[in-house]
Structures are given as structure tokens and as C-alpha cells.
Amino acid sequence: MSMTTESPGYTALIQAAIDRETDILGPEDAIECADSVDGLVVDDDGTVVAVERDGRAVLGDLVGAYVVTAGDVAAFLIARRLENMCDREEVDLPENLAKHM
What we know:
mainly alpha
């Protein structure tokens, strides 16, 4: 029985993106990027505390921030992580991720 109608929900996808980039950039840079995204609140460990505006937009802005920091390979690596979490047909991903799936 599913607890949510979203599969798995933008908050989980945002968290997975942060976790992926933490592995690549290191925690300090990954969390700093996430913290710079409007509408995204993360704690000192990089855990998503709140998404205060449209989750799709926040995810797109987060990926954009990582692309600025690490290049387009960041979007590709995040897309690889997320493709195992969601069905592309069910979740409306931002274009900067969708193009890599």
C-alpha cells in the first residue's frame, strides 16, 4: 500500500540529487549549492528539511546549480540516480534532467 500518490515525490528526488552530488563534490560544496536554491531548505548534513515552492521547479533549479558548479555531467549523474527511483512516464521531471533520461 502506497503512502503517497506521487512516486516517489519531488522531495525524495531532491534528496537523491543532493546525495549524488555529495558523493561527487563532497558535502560542503553539495550542501552549499543546495542551500543556494530558492525554496529549498536543507540542514547542515544536506537533509531536505522543506521544499517551499513547486517541487519540480526546485529540482530543476538544484540541478542547474550543480551544473554551474560541476558541468553538465552533474545533470547526467543525477539523472542516472533518479531513473532507478521513478518512472519517466509518471513523474514530470525538469528539462535539464529529462534530456538525460
